[in-house]
Amino acid sequence: MFKINSIKWFLGSFFVLCTACVCLAVAVAADSTQVSTNKDYKIGVGDVLRVTTWKEADLTFENVFVRNDGKITIPLLDDIQAEGRSTMELKKIIETRLAEFVEAPTVTVTLADPGSQKYYILGEVMGVGEYPLVKKLTVVQAFALAKGFTEWASKDEIILVRRENGKEQMIKIDYDDITDGELANDIQLKADDIIIVP
């Protein structure tokens, strides 16, 4: 009896340890890629930006909204095309225009609210809905944000629907395979991805 209980305790502990390792690996991967994501991110309609000009409080703006025409409005500078550009590209454009009014301006453009980049989770999860895609995110991380599965979820029949170049692609995902160590199957999400858990 003692041996059986000891084996059960060992297997339970081993499972918890493995799960923790998987989660840690995913978290580390996310942290290591976050900087490059911000650099590569393309501004879209609905995004909210923060524009900061060093030592110029009057030229610092907390909530700059990207309008439906893809432009932003900044006092003194008229409208500026933001959609399709990175924050670094937009920073350089703003600095160039500000140079007419401020000597050697230093501008920082950051993403305050990524309203244009979203993904969706449907079906047997605790948190069905629309989520902002704020950084490089994988399927496992998305389920964590959705607070996990319901008790009826078919975790081996998950479908990821992705639209690229006008075509719809359906990718089958087995959640248990990923948590068992098949991390290559932990797909990175893209904007407008739809995850369906039957």
From TrEMBL:
GO terms for biological process: monoatomic ion transport. GO terms for cellular component: cell outer membrane; pore complex. GO terms for molecular function: polysaccharide transmembrane transporter activity; porin activity. The keyword Transferase does not apply. It is found in: Cell outer membrane. It is a multi-pass membrane protein. The keyword Transport applies. Residues 117-197 form the SLBB domain. This is Periplasmic protein involved in polysaccharide export. It comes from Desulfobacter postgatei 2ac9.
